[in-house]
Design brief:
The chain is built from twelve helices and no strands. With 288 residues, it is an all-alpha fold. Helix 6 packs across helix 8 and helix 11 packs antiparallel against helix 12.
Length: 288
């Protein structure tokens, strides 16, 4: 029987959904995927409960801050934050664009390098011994501590910020992708090899499909880490970006505008999560 007639069958969803390893350990994608279940809304009651909690929290904060006459420069009420968001949005929007450019460029670079390194250390174990110490160093080193050094080397502008985002996102993608590549049923690999499948075929037909949930988790975490790093780099480097707006508004004690930018960043982070969650539900959930 030809390999081309056999190996592609391993990429079908049903061949993975109930897989178990030789030692009896369950390695089904239900356990690997962060997307097989999630914060999906199932009933109108849940929607009502979420809205009710939000109204109580926001309304309670509004009432308490106004009742105790807390100054705006200490903590503005939610209504003042929303008003500031609408009035300042034309000014905030260009800086949002700058931040998205930094995030997009750095994340793309970091994700590509992370996936390549994950595949490399999975296929060649000796490479992990060489690469792992440097990845550990990147993970444990605050990226913001490197931003001034990057600015000295590359100057002010996009370059140092994109590099910082790539350094923050890349290790997150690599670690999760490598974990996914390794969590494979050895029986399937042995079966594929018995039909003459090459290492490359095994990687693309078995390892990559089973690693997809973990890869998406790594991409999601990497994107969020990249966003935090981009904002931090903007606060350190100044000039432009949402981080620069935070520094500017806080220095001028314009707290409603400050929290309006925080609200924009929170919404952006939620959108990143929702994006990867929906991608995972569409392409990496085999239990639907």
């Amino acid at each position: 029987m030809a390999v081309s007639d056999t190996v592609p069958q391993f990429s079908k969803a049903k061949s993975f959904s109930k897989a178990s390893s030789g030692d009896g350990q369950d390695v089904s994608l239900t356990n690997l995927s962060a997307f097989s279940s999630g914060p999906g809304i199932k009933s109108g009651f849940e929607v009502a409960a979420i809205v009710a909690v939000a109204v109580i929290l926001i309304g309670g904060a509004e009432l308490a801050l106004r009742l105790f006459k807390v100054p705006l420069y200490i903590m503005p009420p939610p209504s003042a934050i929303v008003t500031a968001l609408f009035t300042e949005f034309p000014l905030i929007l260009p800086h949002l664009g700058y931040t998205l450019v930094e995030l997009g460029g750095g994340f793309a670079i970091g994700a590509c390098i992370g996936l390549i390194l994950a595949a490399l250390i999975t296929q060649f174990p000796f490479a992990e011994k060489i690469i792992a110490p440097y990845i550990l160093l990147l993970v444990t080193t605050p990226m913001l501590a490197l931003v001034p050094l990057l600015i000295l080397r590359f100057g002010f502008g996009y370059t140092p910020r994109i590099i910082a985002v790539a350094l923050a996102a890349g290790p997150m993608v690599m670690i999760n992708a490598a974990t996914g590549f390794r969590r494979v049923d050895n029986a399937k690999i042995a079966l594929a090899r018995s039909y003459g499948a090459s290492t490359l075929q095994i990687f693309w037909k078995i390892r990559a499909p089973m690693a997809l949930p973990m890869i998406l988790v790594g991409l999601m975490i990497g994107a969020i880490f990249g966003l935090l790093t981009a904002v931090g780099a903007e606060m350190v480097g100044g000039g432009f970006g949402l981080g620069n707006r935070l520094t500017t508004y806080s220095s001028m004690i314009q707290m409603p505008q400050f929290f309006a930018v925080v609200l924009v960043l929170s919404i952006l982070g939620i959108l990143i999560y929702v994006l990867f969650f929906l991608i995972g539900k569409k392409w990496a959930s085999w239990e639907a």
